[in-house]
Amino acid sequence: MLCCMPGVAFVPALLVSWSSAAFIISYAIAVLAGHVEPLVPYISDTGTKPPESGVFGFMINISALLAAITMYIRYLLIEKQNETSHFVRSSCNMFTLCIGLMGCTGMGIVATFQELAVPSVHDIGALVAFGSGVVYITLQSIISYKSCPRWNTYFVCHIRMAISVISCIAFIPMIVFASKISMTKIDWTPGEKDYTYHIMSAICEWMVAFGFIFFFLTYIRDFQGFSLRISTEIHED
């Protein structure tokens, strides 16, 4: 089905499908193995112990790569549209891409350095991934409004901005509640110390993560009318 999509719409569709599967599969394995409680664990908690750690690391690294490709195509698309409309500065478009790629790098760090193995590096990667991701989708929402009505409908812009606002609102308490947790562990049980902070922070984390997924889902229609061509030139001496 992905291969039948026009243009390069299959890229964000694959990103959304793969990332959703990464979260769900690692969560299911971790719960069935008894490594985490079913009630809202951290996303990273579902990829800390084997065998789910291998699945989580592999799939999240692929997600980071797909996200980087999607962001780059989005950058090229805006550059092409900007040739005739001039609705955004090229430097702003490049800055937005760089922020997005920082988020992809953070995802790679999260996938490579497990939460209990190297917690400080893992936490830095998570902060970069979520922080850069929130900034990226907010900037893209603003750019979308600037491209209206020629390249985007106001309905799509409203959806993107709503996702961005919700993600920003969820990001702040996610960090605040996580900073109040005094221990690094994955086997949480109700009633113990810092459990409430853990639950609230984890809920916000899942909201931000799926906010990213739903945001990239809105790229599919834009990418349908855009195709990439590779040209080669042969020079004869």
UniProtKB/TrEMBL annotation:
<keyword id="KW-0472">Membrane</keyword>
<keyword id="KW-0812">Transmembrane</keyword>
<feature type="transmembrane region" description="Helical">
    <location>
        <begin position="155"/>
        <end position="177"/>
    </location>
</feature>
<feature type="transmembrane region" description="Helical">
    <location>
        <begin position="197"/>
        <end position="220"/>
    </location>
</feature>
<dbReference type="GO" id="GO:0005764">
    <property type="term" value="C:lysosome"/>
</dbReference>
<feature type="transmembrane region" description="Helical">
    <location>
        <begin position="54"/>
        <end position="73"/>
    </location>
</feature>
<feature type="domain" description="CWH43-like N-terminal">
    <location>
        <begin position="8"/>
        <end position="225"/>
    </location>
</feature>
<comment type="similarity">
    <text>Belongs to the DRAM/TMEM150 family.</text>
</comment>
<feature type="transmembrane region" description="Helical">
    <location>
        <begin position="94"/>
        <end position="112"/>
    </location>
</feature>
<dbReference type="Pfam" id="PF10277">
    <property type="entry name" value="Frag1"/>
</dbReference>
<dbReference type="GO" id="GO:0012505">
    <property type="term" value="C:endomembrane system"/>
</dbReference>
<dbReference type="InterPro" id="IPR019402">
    <property type="entry name" value="CWH43_N"/>
</dbReference>
<feature type="transmembrane region" description="Helical">
    <location>
        <begin position="124"/>
        <end position="143"/>
    </location>
</feature>
<dbReference type="GO" id="GO:0010506">
    <property type="term" value="P:regulation of autophagy"/>
</dbReference>
<protein>
    <submittedName>
        <fullName>DRAM1 protein</fullName>
    </submittedName>
</protein>
<keyword id="KW-1133">Transmembrane helix</keyword>
<dbReference type="InterPro" id="IPR050911">
    <property type="entry name" value="DRAM/TMEM150_Autophagy_Mod"/>
</dbReference>
